[in-house]
Amino acid sequence: MSSLFMRAMRGDATPRRPLWIMRQAGRYLPEYRALRAKHSFEQLSGDAALAAEVTLQPVARFPLDAAIIFADLMSPVGALGLSVRFDPGPVLARPVRTAADVDALRVPTPDEIAPEVIQALRIVRPALDRKLALLGFAGAPWSLAAYLVQGRGAPGFPALRALAHRDPGLLNALLTRLTDLVIAYVKAQVAAGADAVQLFDTWAGVLSRADWDRFVKPHLARFLDETKALGAPRILFVQDASHLVSGYASLPSEALALDWREDLRAVRALVGPARALQGNLDPAILLAGPEATARAASALLAQVPARGHIVNLGHGITPEAPLDSVHALIDTVHSERPA
Amino acid sequence: MSSLFMRAMRGDATPRRPLWIMRQAGRYLPEYRALRAKHSFEQLSGDAALAAEVTLQPVARFPLDAAIIFADLMSPVGALGLSVRFDPGPVLARPVRTAADVDALRVPTPDEIAPEVIQALRIVRPALDRKLALLGFAGAPWSLAAYLVQGRGAPGFPALRALAHRDPGLLNALLTRLTDLVIAYVKAQVAAGADAVQLFDTWAGVLSRADWDRFVKPHLARFLDETKALGAPRILFVQDASHLVSGYASLPSEALALDWREDLRAVRALVGPARALQGNLDPAILLAGPEATARAASALLAQVPARGHIVNLGHGITPEAPLDSVHALIDTVHSERPA
């Protein structure tokens, strides 16, 4: 029997809504902080056994419905021959800005792409309760390009936007390479046991809709086309980009994941009843404590019918989130009576 | 005869579209960098004579249609008894998070609110060509509260969002105090010679529309109501908040200023022909050089009729912007043939 998560993803009726939490394996957990006291973030994400251990921490503590593999958005780019350090966000040793830079990128074989992440999935799959889904993930090509071109996180990624207007052909060549990478990476994740994958387009919102249509959409369309035969649902997470939601909705992914700013009811009306929607409680509400969390979670459930709704936060859980608020969220979802 | 800017603001036909540039008095200018080599940012914005000098730098170099007073978003909050330093963004000595913190805020007399800014306006007004408009500005109450509650800039301002859900009454009390402050500050700016004022709601986009309607909108409505009799147009700048544009458009300001993500044509259709619109070239395009800038500026002009359109960037000009790109933008706007 397939997991609650996968049934909701297919739009089947379920006894209750499934729930997982973005960044659920993270610093709000005492057991994660204990591991981090002994290992750097790079060590945790770079070692398959440690990454598997971290992946399983939140599902051991909480009755969540999915585990998501612990990895960094930048994990696959090492295979392109790029060197990335963390300070604390990703910093490229050398930004990618010229045709020569793009030509110099390695074309990796599939088994060269983040082998530690693939191995971690292989460790987690048999260790995970069959009632839980295992999720893989990757950064979307545009959001990977953001770091590669800018060199590090920066508000609005101006160097990336400038490149788009200075040399759209060069940007397109880079995005083509990154799309190839993400396709191969996701295929390997599914082969290693991921039931579904989430594509994080964290930085797409810095583009206008016209520029998104031109620069981003064709690459996402190819990603979806070339990973369709895997049979694993693809979740597109679109962040801080209300002006792009209808663009993402026009792409043939099985699910859309939304940040806390979006009106879930309006997006449900936009996409119709067949598409799975994931989200989107404001993670800052957890900081306000369990009562505020339960109240807001109830309001979230009232926004859309249970069918096809996977409950999640609208962004990663923050390190300061109290565990009691997580319990309140879970209890609210678990105690909902089916309509 | 009134300035091109003011005629466009009133929706009158003009021989060409007026143009100014957000952050036009800033680090992309060699003469600004020369002054900054001798004075800190706090010294430049804290001294009326220096602030006036900086304000006039861009209009001396470029045929722009407005000067905007050089000041910091946080300039008025010192009058509340709060201490702010820069690192490099504003950092509060102590965040404002409790009822006692709000009660402890001073209630300033009008002449205690950023007197150096008011004095700078008095210096600039007679020195400025009568064909140019002089703009004042202020941070919107919510965007000031963002720094006061969070203590410093932070992605998404989670402490602010948490307060909104933990104690909405307390947040409302703080926003009421800040709205009083902004109203008094803007009145003093107009009395000192500002022809129009721009209200920067830089951080409103971190809220969902439902939360914005509840927490932000009533305070903006009161600001507009209590400053209407001044007769100076009020420009609302809404940033990174596509989901809120229709909310801002529903408020009775004379003008809306939009960031580069917004579709100017769609917003014109939304607000009708009577409202002035300002914006919204992507400032990153200037980094791509004068040709790309001219091309993008032409495309911008083609989006909406000239009447009621004040050309600007969709965000502050970046320190790396080449002066040639600024010339290309100005030349494109100046060479447009009236329809």
Structure notes:
Two copies of one chain form a homodimer. Chain A is α/β, with parallel strands linked by helices. Chain A has one domain (4-334): TIM Barrel, CATH 3.20.20. The first copy, chain A, has helices spanning 4-9, 30-38, 41-46, 48-61, 99-103, 115-127, 141-150, 158-166, 168-191, 209-215, 217-227, 245-249, 264-271, 284-287, 290-303, 323-334, and strands at 66-68, 84-86, 90-92, 133-139, 196-201, 234-238, 255-258, 276-281, 309-313. In chain A, the strands form two sheets. A seven-stranded parallel β-sheet of chain A has the order 1-4-5-6-7-8-9. In chain A, helix 13 (264-271) links the parallel strand 7 and strand 8. In chain A, helix 8 (158-166) packs across helix 9 and helix 15 runs parallel beside helix 16 (323-334). The longest helix of chain A has 24 residues, at 168-191. The first copy, chain A, is globular, with a radius of gyration of 19 Å. The first copy, chain A, starts with a helix and ends in a 5-residue tail after the last helix. The relative contact order of chain A is 0.14. The mean pLDDT of chain A is 96.
Ordered list of secondary-structure elements with their pairings:
Two copies of one chain form a homodimer.
Chain A: H1 4-9, H2 30-38, H3 41-46, H4 48-61, E1 66-68, E2 84-86, E3 90-92, H5 99-103, H6 115-127, E4 133-139, H7 141-150, H8 158-166, H9 168-191, E5 196-201, H10 209-215, H11 217-227, E6 234-238, H12 245-249, E7 255-258, H13 264-271, E8 276-281, H14 284-287, H15 290-303, E9 309-313, H16 323-334
Parallel strand pairs in A: 1-4, 4-5, 5-6, 6-7, 7-8, 8-9
Antiparallel strand pairs in A: 2-3
